[in-house]
Every structure is written in C-alpha cells, then in structure tokens.
Sequence to fold (107 residues):
Amino acid sequence: MSQTCLVCQNIDCKSRGSEPLVAALQQKIAAKGLTDVEVKSYMCFGACQEGPNIVIYPEKNWYAQVKTEDLDEIVEHLAGGPHVKRLDTIDSSLKELIYQLLDTGIF
Ligand code: FES
Fold:
C-alpha cells in the first residue's frame, strides 16, 4: 500500500529543525527506490513540544523528535523494516485524535 510521510512544518517543529527533513527524507526514499512513498508537509499535529513530528499515513505511525540522523531508520521501516520504537513517544490519545482527523481526509 502506498504511504504518505506527513512532516510538520509549523513554527515549533520548524524551530526544532523540521524544514530540512522534508528534502532529506524525499532524497532517502528515492535512493531506496520506494516509489510508493510520498512526503508532504503538514500544518500541525498538536504535539508541538515534541517536534519535529512525522506521521506515516495510512499506516498510522508517529515519529517524534526526529533528527536527520533518524531518517535512515525511518526509511528502513518504510521499506518493510522494524518500527522505530524509540521515536514513538506520543501519547496514544493524541495519536488517535490525529489519526481520526486524517481518516476524514483533511490533509
Ligand atoms: S508545530 Fe509541529 S506539531 Fe505543532
């Protein structure tokens, strides 16, 4: 199934370095030959203190406090590798709320 990596580009995530993550993630996904994975900016997931935040949808995985050094592992996961547990730190009730919002098609 194709996946979308939503990378928050709002002020807090940007101030923590989310801006260069978009291009870096796109480049790593292309280098890995993952043609069914897209990278898109997102407006805010409501976990601004935990940024940079990346949500993988429709798979529904949320990675928080992502740094450039973490991207290889995230790309491995997108290629079928293990879920990056140490970046999965967001409270499950907030995750559910955001996943429900995404399920309505608003992104
Ligand atoms: S600024 Fe990124 S989650 Fe709000």
About this structure: The domain at 3-103 is CATH 3.40.30.10 (Glutaredoxin).
